[in-house]
Amino acid sequence: MKRYDSVIFDFDGTLVDGLDAIVECFNLAFGKFDVLPPSRDEIRKKIGLLLLDIYEDFLPPERHHQINEVIEAYRNCAHEILPVKTYLRAGALDTLVFLKNKGIKLGIATTKATDTTVKTLEHLGALEFFDAVCGIDLVKRPKPDPEQLFLALKLLGSNPGRAIMIGDTYVDVMAAKAAGIYSIALLDGYGERKLIEDACPDLKIETITELITSGLLFGETIE
């Protein structure tokens, strides 16, 4: 039977729900530059992607020269607002407790800044569960490149064959596959289901608590 000793989580849409706060930060950043912000649904579909790519899509071409300024405005807002307006998703705490009690090492690989992620976890009282928090600022090539996952594995003292990656976007699946890590796609997050399925994850689950109830993980073989 194959034993996994580590789980690397995506953050937004997987463990936490900060959509309202993210939309608020987008609105404030766009408003600062007198640009009409995208809709809530448009923003939701982009969560987990790189901010540079997101703003290239959302800003009109004639404002692309201001992308870095708009991103900076968003990040300043996010650092203050997201930690206090982000909440653990249903079942996330139970899942973290279950995994920790099984002796599983837990990490996070997110396109959010490390300090904002840590600040959010502290506010939620959940930082103690994690042995590694890898934000976008710690790597040169974030997801879907595997560099972030390799860094998490190094900090966890694990290797690709002993780890699982779980996330709610196709980017998470692609990063896991590139790293040689077993990929689990969470289908009730922010990501678009078709894009996730097209990325061909090793396993699809509807809710995060299936990590507890499925009986597939941590001591039993995954088919």
Provide a short characterization of the protein structure.
The protein is built from 10 helices and 8 strands.
Q: Main sheet: which strands, in order across?
A: 5-4-1-6-7-8
Portion of residues in beta strands equals: 5-15%
Poorly predicted spans: none
The total beta strand count reads 8
CATH architecture of the largest domain: 3-Layer(aba) Sandwich
Query: What's the helical proportion of residues?
Result: 40-55%
Average of per-residue pLDDT values? 92
Briefly note the CATH topology name of the largest domain.
Rossmann fold
Provide structural commentary:
This protein has 223 residues and is an alpha/beta fold. The chain has 2 domains: 6-17 and 87-213, HAD superfamily/HAD-like (Rossmann fold); 19-84, Putative phosphatase, domain 2 (DNA polymerase, domain 1, Orthogonal Bundle). The chain has 10 helices and 8 strands. The strands form 2 sheets. A 6-stranded parallel β-sheet has the order 5-4-1-6-7-8, with helices on both faces. A two-stranded antiparallel sheet has the order 2-3. The longest helix has 15 residues, at 67-81. The protein is globular, with a radius of gyration of 17 Å. The mean pLDDT is 92.
